[in-house]
Amino acid sequence: MVREGATAVLILADAKQVSRTDQIAQLARQHRLPLMSPFRRLTEAGGLMSYGIDWSGVDRDLAVYTARVLGGTKPSELPFE
User: Fold this and answer.
1) Is 0.85 surpassed by the pTM of this model?
2) Distance from the CA of 2 to the CA of which of 10, 13, 28, 72 falls in 20 to 30 A?
3) Residue 20: what are its φ and ψ, rounded to 5°?
C-alpha cells in the first residue's frame, strides 16, 4: 500500500476483503493509514470509521413483512422502508 503511494484505505463490500479484515486493519495501523469501510468490525480493529447498513434489524423487518403477506396483506399495500 505504502509503496504504491496510498494515503488512505477504503474497503468496499467484497468477500475477499471481508475474509481478511484483521490483516487489512493491521497493515493500515502499521503504516498509519486511515481506514474506512462499510464494516463495523474494521473500525473496532482500529480503522478510522465505518459507514454502511445496520443489518441488526433487517431479519426482524423481513419476518414482519413476510407474516403480513402470509396473513393476506397485498405486498403493494406495504410501506416501502
Assistant:
1) no
2) 13
3) -120, 30
What order of strands is seen across the sheet that includes strand 9-10? Answer: 9-10, 35-37, 49-50
Residue 21 is placed in which grid cell? 479484515
Total residues belonging to the chain:
81
Q: How far is CA 66 from the centre of its chain?
A: 24
Specify whether the CB–CB gap between 20 and 41 falls below 8 A: no
Note the pLDDT tens digit of each residue in 21-56.
Answer: 788 888 888 999 999 988 888 888 888 998 888 778
Q: Is residue 38 part of a domain?
A: yes
**What's the total number of domains in the chain?**
1
* C-alpha to C-alpha distance for 47 and 74, rounded to whole angstroms: 44
Q: In terms of residue numbers, what domain contains 18?
A: 9-77
